[in-house]
Predict the structure of Fumarylacetoacetate hydrolase family protein.
Amino acid sequence: MTSPAYVIDPPACSSLPVAGTDKRFPVHRIFCVGRNYAAHAVEMGHDPDKEPPFFFLKSPSNLATDGAAFPYPPATGDVHHEVELVVALSRGGADIPVETALEHVFGYAVGLDMTRRDLQAEAKALGRPWEVGKAFDHSAPCGTLVPASRIGHPEAGTITLRVNGAPRQAGDLAQMIWKTPEIIAYLSRLFTLQPGDLIMTGTPAGVGPVVRGDRLDAEIDGLIPLAVAVT
């Protein structure tokens, strides 16, 4: 039955599982950092020199959690994987200093920024927004959050992705052009950050296509691996 406070039933809150508890982390927004590893910037045809970061958004409803399958999306023939470190914020704020930015972090997870590369390329060529290429249903598979109180704040460590057991992406968190505290501080000058915000921090080189039947295994040192089946 529809709640008397709304003309339709409000959507369910998107959330992520948290390691060591049966409670979940509610998700408010998903910010994504573009081209944050030099080698990936090069493979996408861009200069790897450090420039101000840029961001795009996914919707919380794009999350696919708890080992959910990734349904191959419509209107595309070129879907790519991008493995990323996901940062979850427990505190918000504006104009957050770099020096205290990590105090706003609840924890970290392994995530995938799935991309309809052909639609993204078309949008780029026409000077249009990227949402059709980036913010489609199930485009943000994400693993279990591990609290920073348990593992600290990872500054280095391998980040990898295998497709059907074969290595595709490999890098190190230390190779991020913009580090986690810098990303939080910069983003907080553009938006008032909120508890529940997620930040996907960019992907190393080796992005490539997936097809139905593929199994993706994403791992970051110290975090809970993420396995996704493409259906």
